[in-house]
Each structure stands twice: as C-alpha cells, then as structure tokens.
User: Which sequence fits this backbone?
C-alpha cells in the first residue's frame, strides 16, 4: 500500500451573489494541504500545523477532516484497526469565507481514498466531504465542497440527494478574493437570514441565477455582470462586514463584472473579464480597508479547474 | 406601400414551473391571426371575428392589439391621420393560459411594422407588445410576448429594461398543452399570490431555474425533468384549477419530464422527450377531465422557433 501521500485542496468562493447555496467556484490558491500515511496504531491521528492550527478544532468529533474521513471509512466498512496519521496544514483560517472547512474535508477524504488504493471515484467522495463540513456550520450545503473537490464553477440543484453540475467557464474570467482581518462565523451569518423573503425578490433571484448559467454557457460577460445581483442575502449580511459597500463600490469603479460577499464573509470576491481589472479590484478593495486601518490579504486567479489534487 | 398583409402569432406556455415570470416558450399552434391594410379613414379600425370575438374587449383602450399598436405608432411619431383596418381572428379565448393577450399584441405590432415598410427590427417591437398585454392583466411581464414574437424558449432576466435570452432547445423536446373548459383570469390568479415566500423555497426556485437553463444547453433531459419543480406559485394557484393534481399525476405516469400550470391556467402543460410520450400525456389529462364531465382541447407540438410570422 502507498505511504506518505500529499494532497492539496483549493480555496473556494461560494454564493456568487445570485446563487445562494447554489453556486461555487474554486480558485488557484491552496487552502489545505494534508500529508498522510498508514500507521500501525488504530485510529485517525491528526496533527495540525501552521499559523492557523490554533483556530481549528482538534476534537475529532468537531474537526471537519476527521468527521469526513470517519464517514468515508464507515461507508467502506473499513476495519476499526486501521491507523491513519495526518499532518494538516491550513493556509487559510476557518471563518474566512473561502471554504476552509470544506477544503479540509475534501483533502482528508481524497487522501484516505488514495491511501486505500482508490476504492472510490473522486466524485463519489463528495457526500463525505459535505458531512465533514456539516460539523463546522451545521448546514448541509455543497457550494464549497463541490468546487473544492472537483474544480470549476459548479451549480448545485440539490444537496440531498446530490445533484450538481459543472458549468462551462468562459475564457478570460478572473476571480479576485480579498480577505480583510474581520471575524465572521458561518453559523452566525446564517442566523441573521430571515425565514421569509419578498416574492418579487425570489423571482429576481431565480431569473439572475438562470441568466448567470446562460451567460457562462455563452461567454456573455455583459449578461454575467447584470446577473451578479443578490436579492436574498447581501442586504441581510452586509452589516456583519463593515465597509463592504465601500469596497464593492471601489471594485465596480475598476470595471469589475460584479462583487459580493464570498460565502458568509469576510472575504469579498470580484469577477472580472481580464486579469488587469481583477488586480485593480484587489488593490481598490485593499485600499478601502487600509484606509480604515484594517489589513487584508488578496488573491487574483482564474477559475481553478483541477479541484483537490495529489501533489 | 404594401396592402392586405396577414400575420400569425403562436400560442405560448409561460412560467414552466421553475420560471415564474422568467420562462416562456412558443408552440406550433396559431393563437391570433390578423389581416390588415392601410385605409384613408384615420385611426385603428378593429374588426374581431371568429368564435372568441365575444370574449375580447372591443374598447380600443382595453384591447391589447390596439394598445400595442398605438404605443408603436407613438414611438414612430406617425401622423394621426394614418388609417389602419384590422381583422383579428382569435383562435384561442383570452384567459386560457396560452398567451392570448400577448399573441394579439405581437401580431398587431408586427403587422403594422410591415404595413409601414418595416421601420423597426422584429426584436425592437417587443416593448410595444408588452405594453399591449399590460392592459389585459395590469402586470409587466414578457414570458408570453417574448416567445410569441421571437419564437423559441426564452429566459427573461428583466422586463424593464428588457433583458431576454433565447435558450438552445434540445432535439426531441415536445410540449403538450391541454385546456380544460374552466375559466381563470390572469388578474385573479395574480391576486392569490402571497407577497412573501419561504427563504428555502426562494433558494430552491433559483437552483431549479439555473438547472433548467443548464439542462437546455446540455440537452440533459433527466436534469430538465428534475428542475421542473415550482416552489413559488403552484401550491398557491392549484385550488383555482380543480383536478390539476390528478391531471399532473396522470401525465407523470406516462413518462412526462414535468407538468404544470401554463401561465395562470387553466391550460396544463407537459414537457416530454419524445412525441409519443407527449401524446400519451395529452390523452391522460384529457381523460382526467372527461371523467369529471369537463371537456378539453389539446395540442402536441415541438417548440415553435419562428414566433410571429407573415403568412
């Protein structure tokens, strides 16, 4: 059996304005890196390393990596005497809006699948990654885990049962992700959402998501830009992210196609139709927060097409 | 100038379950036929003929044909001395859920555009048709007028300003439309709609509309079928259409992809992936209503691609 395997899972942008719980895409920035090997001592032995180790739960019933792997091993009916040692390096802190919980879960199941000689196809691993992510925010959603595992921009029709579809990515589409140093937890961000919405908002949200999908298939950047509206969530969550509207306004002035809160924030994402514009957006948003005395990190990337990979 | 021109506008199916106010398609069944010519006597002279003439308003401020044409002539800044004589034959009664109001308006503006030597492109006529339809139900929507005028299956992102997109139609897609003799008015059907909906329903509606668009682009009939759910309107309107759930259940048993209320009813539409299944659905729904002592008419058709045409 192979020993000492390394797997990397990318950061992901979810919701994308018109697609709450229904859209996500992967970017070329490694979120989680896990090195693992089979060991004699039974159980999953997790070793969290790197700057963000402290903000990740080490309790195996609360850690997305171990929960995802445990569910996977249960499905395989693997012997309880199996021993797995994992060194998890989190490049991005949980609660950043870049799919950190999903990335750990995806990397974990992908790695164990490899250690065991690949008993499942990559796509079959997704339910276990989603189960892992569930322990972090108590919500069933696939808009981080699906693009993280599979790459690309993914449309999620349904989580239970899984009904996900990879969209064509137009050439020239760039993603900017700026993360100001503000803390928001997914669970709290979900709690602010109202249980009822305007009928008209629901109609507009649907029309925009339909248009987003059409725009991707037809490489229509003008339509993509018009469809990047959020009629369900943005208004309810914006107060959790001070300066968001200033940042959005600054990004749109650089020629961005659209701008919004990634997942439940604090990361702000921008879609652009060329790399220069994407870099200008990153600079503009970084400046808005710098002027408020808040530091940010930023990434500019094309849509990642590979998802979680062996490396 | 040309004289004695004839124009035909097709019937249309709107809403299509997951696309309230956002989806419509045309079928190969003529809804309105108008013959018109320029005359010396100034004004629009409307002559309603055929079995459904009685149920169509003859007051020019309430008739969709004359209102559409008046708006069109205003936009052209045409002389008030212009005289137009029209003979309007309505094949389908207003209030059937097959876009009768839109068809009259589309045929009217298309015909006058031809009479005047085509001052506008076909697509530019759409706003006037929508204005005409507005007088019938006091609602701005393009999900009948857009497919009626242009043909095909159309996604409407926005009515004001118009933002509409023709979807690829997969080979083999068939439409069944069964109209039981039950009267429902669009205006009343709109009044039953609640102003607020569940957040979860809004998320599902959007995911289904996105999936419908993806399914059309990729000819994925299985996904098309799964996406044909209505989380916003069907439950609220079904009581206006006795027997609807029986009819839907009967249609689905014949292998239909999906079934719903066309527009605000009473027409029930079915989508199928072959002609035999489409015909079986028509028979099954017709039988459900026959057993209740209600007569129906039915049409089975591919998606009409030509829209409103000169003939």
Assistant:
């Amino acid at each position: 059996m192979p020993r000492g395997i390394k797997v990397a899972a990318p950061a992901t942008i979810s919701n994308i304005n018109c697609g709450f719980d229904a859209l996500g895409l992967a970017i070329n920035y490694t979120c989680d890196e896990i090195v693992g090997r089979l060991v004699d001592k039974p159980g999953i032995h997790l070793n969290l390393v790197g700057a963000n180790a402290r903000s990740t739960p080490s309790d195996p019933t609360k850690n997305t990596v171990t929960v995802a792997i445990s569910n996977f091993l249960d499905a395989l009916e693997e012997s309880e005497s199996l021993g797995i040692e994992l060194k998890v390096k989190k490049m991005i802190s949980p609660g950043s809006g870049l799919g950190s919980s999903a990335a750990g879960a995806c990397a974990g199941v992908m790695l164990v699948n490899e250690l065991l000689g690949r008993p499942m196809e990559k796509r079959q691993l997704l339910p276990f990654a989603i189960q892992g992510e569930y322990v972090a925010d108590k919500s069933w959603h696939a808009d981080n885990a699906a693009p993280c595992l599979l790459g690309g921009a993914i449309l999620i029709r349904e989580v239970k049962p899984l009904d996900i579809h990879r969209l064509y990515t137009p050439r020239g589409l760039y993603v900017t992700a700026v993360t100001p140093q503000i803390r928001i937890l997914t669970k709290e961000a979900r709690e602010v959402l109202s249980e009822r919405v305007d009928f008209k908002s629901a109609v507009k949200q649907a029309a925009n998501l339909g248009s987003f999908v059409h725009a991707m298939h037809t490489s229509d950047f003008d339509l993509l830009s018009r469809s990047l509206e959020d009629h369900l969530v943005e208004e309810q969550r914006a107060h959790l992210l001070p300066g968001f509207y200033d940042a959005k306004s600054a990004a749109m002035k650089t020629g961005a196609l659209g701008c919004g809160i990634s997942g439940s924030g604090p990361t702000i994402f921008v879609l652009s139709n060329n790399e220069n514009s994407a870099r200008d957006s990153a600079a503009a948003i970084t400046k808005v927060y710098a002027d408020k005395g808040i530091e940010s990190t930023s990434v500019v990337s094309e849509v990642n097409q590979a998802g979680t990979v062996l490396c």
The first strand of chain A starts at residue 5 and ends at 14. Chain A has two domains: 5-168+306-310, 174-302.
